[in-house]
Amino acid sequence: MLPQLPNFLLESEIAVVTGGGSGIGRAVALAFAAAGAQVVVLDAHEAAASQVAEELGVYGEAVVADVREAEAIERAFADVALRYGHIDVLFNNAGINRRHPSLELPLDDWNAVVAVNMTGMFICARTAVRHMVPGGRIVNTASMLGLSGGWYPNIAYQATKGAVVNMTRSWAIEWAPLQIRVNAVAPGLVRTPFIAALTDQRDLVAKFEKLTPLGRLAEVDDITGPVLFLASPASAMVTGHILVVDGGMLAQ
To answer: How many helices (H) and strands (E) are present in the chain, helices listed first?
Structure first.
């Protein structure tokens, strides 16, 4: 008899995707739906969330909430749990960036990045856990830049993504007794509107492609498989792991 294949499906599960209105969030929402999940597309931008939910059809719904606002997130997650009974998966993905050298970075920009990338991720994770049952899963979006010094001045993003790395590890231990797994995906540069200011610069793209052993930047579809793995029963014994998806850059 052939061995049973790992289960990468999310059939009839309830998945919340923050920052689901564009980029990696949108791609993962589509992948989760294709795997059988009912997907809640949570985004601060109503039009974006609604557009993705429309793409998902019967598998999707849009929820408008800002991850920085604890009360709004608590209401949104409670409403989801009331409709479906509980939450199975959280893709904790919402994030922003402000690129400046440290000596030129306005404090308001620093605080804005911390509020979304670190505090917002904290708010969403602990709120989701309150509505999870044993077997729940959280996948956080970290970054290759949370594990390295980076290749251009980006201190606020790097600091907050480094925090995501260690929040992931800490939560994995804290919530293991609840049988809730917490992991993170750490992409390198991914061609999305989020980094359009960089990818519009051909010389800079060529530089990063040369630095990448696989010779190219990632596309959003390169990230969905790793996220689905961490969100699915296929990774049942994996928790506290940071799955780097960077084409080999950090291996050098």
So the answer is: 9, 7
DSSP strands (E only) in 52-179: 60-64, 89-92, 137-141
Amino acid at 173: I
For the chain, domains (ranges, CATH) are 14-244 (3.40.50.720)
Q: What is the DSSP secondary-structure string of the chain?
A: -PPPPP----TT-EEEEETTTSHHHHHHHHHHHHTT-EEEEEES-HHHHHHHHHHHGGGEEEEE--TT-HHHHHHHHHHHHHHHSS--EEEE---------GGG--HHHHHHHHIIIIIIHHHHHHHHHTT--TT-EEEEE--GGGSS--SS--HHHHHHHHHHHHHHHHHHHHTGGGT-EEEEEEE--B-SGGGHHHHT-HHHHHHHHHHSTTSSPBPTHHHHHHHHHHHSGGGTT--S-EEEESTTGGG-
Model confidence pLDDT, tens digit, residues 95-138: 999 989 999 999 999 999 999 999 999 999 999 999 999 999 99
pLDDT in tens, 151-191: 778 999 999 999 999 999 999 999 999 999 999 999 988 88
The one catalytic residue in 59, 84, 152, 157 is: 157
Whether 157 is catalytic is yes
